[in-house]
Amino acid sequence: MKDKIKLIALDVDGVLTDGKLLIGPDGKELKSFHVKDGMGISLARFSGIKIAIISGRKSEAVRIRARELNIDFLYEGITHKVNALAEIAASLNIEFKNVFYMGDDINDLPIINSAGISAAPIDAADIVKKSVTFVSQFHGGNGAVREAIEYVLSQQVNYGELVSNYLIELEGTAQ
């Protein structure tokens, strides 16, 4: 990895979730997130990488999960994801070459093609998998984000040392 990644941007449905939409009779939407993906996000944030979620849908479940994970930027209901990414990159004073994006479907192609490196879950659309730098062996919502983040981190830091420092910090914050 030639350019250091400073921002990880993620789609939600099909990436952080399995893509299924569970809508109850009251209209409330439920989503299932994988804790391993959350740990990957926590490790990336610990290493100094900012995290963004850029989703085409709006969901209270996503807002709750984003708060739990201390996501730096949350953009929902976004049709033109590249515009959202440009706004985030400008606020961080970084270039697209310093961005890692993970998406799964054709609406993600413009941002995938703009990011410095990109990834997709194994169950992404074929055209997306052919367009990304890295294809996870996991399905969306089942650890694909974690594997992709580990891919990024292992190329720019000593991953074992990062984990050790993370655990030391975690122990230091325990009551």
Can you describe this structure?
This protein has 175 residues and is an alpha/beta fold. The chain is 41% helix and 15% strand. The chain contains seven helices and eight strands. It has helices at 35-46, 60-68, 81-92, 109-114, 126-129, 144-156, 159-173; strands at 7-10, 22-23, 29-30, 50-54, 73-75, 99-102, 117-120, 134-135. It has a six-stranded parallel sheet with strand order 5-4-1-6-7-8, with helices on both faces. Strand 7 (117-120), helix 5 and strand 8 (134-135) form a beta-alpha-beta unit. The longest helix is centred in the last third of the chain and has 15 residues, at 159-173.
Largest sheet: 6 strands, parallel
Biggest β-sheet: strands ordered side by side in the sheet: 5-4-1-6-7-8
Q: In terms of structural class, how would the helical and strand content be classed?
A: alpha/beta
Rounded mean pLDDT score = 94
Report the total helices. Answer: 7
Helix content: 40-55%
- Estimate the global geometry from the Cα principal axes: globular
Gap from first CA to last CA: 39 Å
Q: Summed up, what is this model?
A:
By secondary structure, the protein is of the alpha/beta class. The chain contains 7 helices and 8 strands; from the N terminus they run βββαβαβαβαβαβαα.
